[in-house]
Design goal:
Blueprint (H helix, E strand, L loop, with lengths): L1 H16 L6 E9 L4 E4 L2 E5 L2 E6 L19 E5 L6 E4 L1 E8 L5 E8 L3 E5 L3 H4 L6 E2 L2 H5 L6 H8 L3 E5 L4 E6 L5 E4 L1 H4 L4 E6 L4 E10 L4 E6 L13 E2 L9 E6 L8 E12 L7 E5 L11 E4 L4 E8 L9 E5 H8 L15 H13 L3 H11 L12 E9 L4 E4 L2 E5 L2 E6 L1 E8 L6 E7 L4 E7 L5
Parallel strand pairs: 1-9, 10-17, 24-30
Antiparallel strand pairs: 1-4, 2-3, 2-5, 5-6, 7-8, 11-12, 11-14, 12-13, 13-16, 14-15, 15-16, 18-19, 18-21, 19-20, 20-23, 21-22, 22-23, 24-27, 25-26, 25-28, 28-29
Length: about 450
């Protein structure tokens, strides 16, 4: 009997010492309309109405060190074809986990609530107005250069100060209807941003699109009145940017006056993997925290880049980086497919010569060139409804193209895709996979340029 008692006592002590599994609680995410894709920290998790069980310690602090805890922030991305994408920060944190004895056990985050709801807005109602963009060198060089004072006077009204819950920065208007370009690292996780114009008015801008990989985000602010039009800036492609030309940065550096102006030159233009994907403009114009998202302007008042980061290194000064307007235009073309001049159709004789060359030498380059020239014209009424044309190139050439997890040949290639959202992946041996979420509008014509970085 004594032996049995000792066994029972040991079993009881074991059960008391072992942590009990925390009871699960349910996270719910709904949208209007429903059926939207839900991504949690970039991973597809389901569609709305969305439900998922998590440990109770994710919703409220557990009472013992054995309890489950959320060790990272959680962001939900809600997307539906034809509607502007929404991002929600689901958690608060970080907070320090401290035991009863005062021992620091690390950081944790808590879900703000167990229910979230978003109202999705149709793209057609969000992305209105027109983008003023110049792709050709001739169109830019014909415009006169402005004096520094006149340049500031004309462009400053289109620059905005943006403030989120725990961060602030800059942005600039690109349409008269209130579409704002800024950095994704400023807008990510924010449903809206407090927006201040240089004249002092304060408005609310809804975050309507975030491309975290390119670090570009779009927000939309409504006018002060029904007929009010916002001042906005033209953009020019990276091909029009020249080393040594004068540039101006306007932004809102932290702990300094708002809408500050700094001047410099273009130090270099090109790819710079250490800064991230895309084409970068290196400049010695001072760029400080808070300048992020603001415009880098040439002497003609055109945006050549979006100020994004500065090099912080011992004994190094005067090196800042702006993501080029070519990358900004790549994002904007997802919603404004007709930005810039439309390509001129080939003469019948030239098209025939291309076909003959392709027949004589059926290389991938020749085949892709022919496909590009003979692709359906989105401006042609005979183009099928509900489709867009996407031209995909890669660096290096020959990358494998996967659309919605299906193989579609090698780059360069021109594809006809149904209207809506598509997951695009390009793969090349020895390179990091290149990924994008592409919004294809009906009768649109888009171009994607994928620079695949060397694998570590």
């Amino acid at each position: 009997m004594a032996f049995r008692s000792r066994i029972c006592l040991c079993a009881l002590c074991f059960l008391l010492a072992c942590p009990r599994r925390a009871s699960a609680e349910r996270l719910q995410i709904t949208s209007n309309p429903s059926g939207a894709t839900v991504e949690l920290n970039g991973v597809a998790a389901g569609t709305t109405p969305f439900e998922k069980d998590f440990p109770g310690g994710f919703f409220h602090k557990t009472k013992t060190s054995f309890g489950a805890r959320l060790e990272h922030a959680m962001v939900a991305r809600i997307s539906l074809p034809g509607y502007a994408t929404k991002e929600l920060t689901l958690t608060d944190g970080p907070q320090n986990w401290v035991s009863l004895k005062g021992r620091n056990l690390g950081e944790y985050w808590l879900l703000k609530t167990d229910r979230f709801h978003v109202d999705l807005k149709p793209i057609g109602e969000t992305f209105t107005g027109e983008i003023n963009a110049k792709d050709s060198v001739a169109s830019s060089t014909l415009q006169l250069e402005l004096s520094l004072e006149e340049l500031v006077r004309q462009t400053k009204p289109a620059v905005v100060y943006l403030r989120g819950l725990n961060k602030s920065g800059s942005g600039f208007l690109v349409t008269s209807t209130g579409v704002i370009v800024t950095n994704a690292h400023l807008a990510r996780g924010e449903e809206s941003l407090l927006t201040q114009l240089s004249a002092g008015q304060q408005l609310e801008a809804k975050v309507v699109y975030v491309d975290a990989e390119l670090d570009i985000a779009l927000a939309k602010v409504d006018g002060l009145s029904e007929n009010n039009e916002f001042p906005h800036l033209p953009l020019t492609a990276a091909t029009n940017v020249h080393q040594g030309e004068s540039v101006l940065a306007i932004g809102n550096p932290g702990d300094a006056m708002l809408f500050s102006v700094t001047k410099g030159i273009v130090s270099a233009v090109g790819k710079f993997p250490n800064a991230g994907p895309g084409t970068w403009i290196q400049t010695d114009a001072p760029i400080n925290p808070g300048n992020s998202g603001g415009p880098l302007l040439n002497s003609r008042g055109e945006v050549i880049g979006i100020n994004t980061q500065k090099l912080i290194k011992k004994n190094v000064t005067g090196i800042g980086f702006a993501l080029s307007s070519s990358d900004v235009l790549e994002v904007l073309r997802r919603f404004y497919p007709n930005i810039g001049a439309a390509p001129q159709p080939l003469a019948r004789g030239k098209a025939a010569r291309l076909a003959a060359d392709a027949a004589d030498s059926p290389s991938p380059q020749s085949t892709a060139s022919l496909a590009t020239e003979s692709a359906p014209d989105p401006q042609n009424p005979s183009s099928p409804d509900g489709f867009g044309v996407v031209t995909i190139t890669s660096e290096p050439d020959g990358a494998e193209i996967f659309i919605d997890e299906k193989f579609h040949g090698n780059a360069p290639a021109t594809l006809k895709l149904s209207a809506g959202s598509h997951a695009v992946i390009l793969k090349f041996p020895g390179r990091v996979d290149w990924r994008r979420t592409l919004e294809v509008l009906k009768s649109s014509k888009l171009s994607l340029k994928a620079a695949l970085e060397l694998a570590p």
